Amino acid sequence: MGCGAQGRVISTFLSRLPQCEKIILADIDAKALNNHATWLKSEKLVVKKLDASNIQEVANVAKNTDILINAVIPRFNLALMKAALVAGVHYIDLAFGPPYSNLEKELELNQSFKKKRLQL
Which InterPro entries did the record assign (predicted)? Predict the structure, then answer.
């Protein structure tokens, strides 16, 4: 999730791995998604306009994947973690920051990931 600098680098790297069959790159910015897809020219890449705060929408897109990689700003961390749990997929987060009050809530979700045998 996220088509900023980190998301573009991650999708480019993954597109070159033979064991990676499909990459769904999602962001609220359709122009950024389309520009990156045009530049990357990978048949593995699927772009999807998506609101990171919409837990169910993100979960619906993530449910047929192995992992949700969060490359968006930290205010979306809780929503994306919850979306990964709903989808039943592993989760990687690349950033932590404001709102700092989310840290305890994020750590509490760790138990939910463990119960589902998902990596956080």
Answer: NAD(P)-bd_dom_sf, Sacchrp_dh_NADP-bd
Using one digit for the tens of pLDDT, what is the confidence trace for 42-61?
999 999 999 999 999 999 99
Share of the chain above pLDDT 90, in %: 84
38's CB contacts (< 8 A; 6+ apart) are none
Instruction: Give long-range contacts, CB 8 A cutoff, 24+ apart: 7-13.
Output: 7/69, 7/71, 7/72, 8/36, 10/69, 10/71, 11/36, 11/40, 11/42, 11/45, 12/40
Whether the CB-CB separation of 90 and 118 falls below 8 Å is answered with yes
Strand partners, 93: 70
Q: Give me the domains of the chain, ranges plus CATH numbers.
A: 5-115 (3.40.50.720)
What share of the chain in percent tops pLDDT 70?
100
* pTM (two decimals): 0.91
**Residue with token string 């772009």:** 47
